[in-house]
Structure formats: structure tokens, C-alpha cells
């Protein structure tokens, strides 16, 4: 009888030296060029993987499998120019334990992929001001990074939370280049590369 192997939160595959107090795996800085971007949900059907990068600025259910079955996706992701670390959600209304868990999962996947020779661009995310205590743990200083502005400009309060976190990212990480998926919000500074979101492309083509 087939017995499913337990994954023990992937600790049976790799345990990385973590940043205290939560043991977030440290990932390495990267500088690279990406010609085109696609969401992970289009990775399998992409015919020109060597001129594309993969982002995870999509709903979590569409990429939870990279955590549940990490080895199954290494060969696929290895064929792209670069891959962003998976953007597991850290919404402000999530319990803090879930937010930190999702931050850990993002870093475990990124560190695992880097160990497999994949070029990984750190995806930076935060929720509220309290998240600064852990949301930058394991992120490299002076690296290219990626963020998403989608859904961050809905009202004055959310806009300010986004800009405050953005400026905290600049201060702590000093990124060399910032890939912004979606509209570049007012007040964002630095060496920014804008990437149009799927929604904005769709509206433009109407």
C-alpha cells in the first residue's frame, strides 16, 4: 500500500541557517536583467522561458504548490531568466502568526531555489508598522528587489501604509533596483523598473 510521505513543513528537505528570532532563511542578493515578466500561472505554457522572468503577484492558491511540492517545480523554474520569491500574503487582517509563517515560507522557497542554482529576486512585502519587526528578516542588502503596488492605493490609510513600508524598505535594504508590479505610487523613489500588472494590460487592450 502506498504511504504518503510527510513533508514536515519541508524540514526534511532543507534546514537553512535562519535569522532570529523566527529562524527566517537568509537569501542572497542578486543583480540581473529580465526581458519580460509572466505570472507563475503561465509558467508551464510559456514557450520562451529563456527570455522571461516569473513573478508570484497572483492569488496564493495559484502557487501554494511550490511550497507543497517544491522539488516538482525546480526543473521548470530553472529554465527562466529569474524567479521572484513567492509572494505569500501578509495582509494586515491576518493573524500575526500566519503573516510570519508566510514570510518564512517565502524565504524557505527562495533559499531552496538559490541552492538549486535558480536566480531568485527577493520579493519584499509588509503589512502594518508592527510587521517591520520581522518582514525584512532574511532579505539581502543592496540587492535588486520586487514589490507589488496592486491593491495598495484603495484609500488614504492603505496608501500611507504602503508608502511607509516602502520607505522603511529603502532605509533597511538599500535596494539597487526596485521592480514595481503595477502602477508606481506617488512618493516612491529609487531606481524603479515598472512592470504593468495583468489587470492594467487587460484594461489597456479593451
List the helices and strands and how they pair.
Blueprint lengths: L17 E2 L4 E2 L10 E4 L12 E4 L9 H4 L1 H8 L4 E3 L11 H20 L4 E2 L22 E5 L7 H18 L3 E5 L10 E4 L2 H8 L1
Parallel strand pairs: 3-4, 4-5, 5-6, 7-8, 8-9
Antiparallel strand pairs: 1-2
Classify the secondary structure makeup into a structural class: alpha/beta
Poorly predicted runs of 5 or more residues: 199-206
Assign an overall shape. globular
* Oligomer category: single chain
Order of helices and strands: EEEEHHEHEEHEEH
Percentage of residues assigned to helices: 25-40%
Largest sheet: 4 strands, parallel
Order of strands, widest sheet: 3-4-5-6
Instruction: List how many beta strands DSSP finds.
Output: 9
Radius of gyration: 17 Å
Number of helices: 5
Span between termini: 54 Å
Kindly report the average pLDDT value: 93
Strand content bin: 15-25%
Architecture overview:
With 206 residues, the protein is α/β, with parallel strands linked by helices. The protein contains five helices and nine strands. It has helices spanning 65-68, 70-77, 96-115, 156-173, 198-205, and strands at 18-19, 24-25, 36-39, 52-55, 82-84, 120-121, 144-148, 177-181, 192-195. The strands form three sheets. Strands 3-4-5-6 form a four-stranded parallel sheet. A three-stranded parallel sheet has the order 7-8-9, with no helix packed on it. Strand 7 (144-148), helix 4 (156-173) and strand 8 form a beta-alpha-beta unit. The N and C termini lie far apart (54 Å). Residues 199-206 have low confidence and may be disordered.
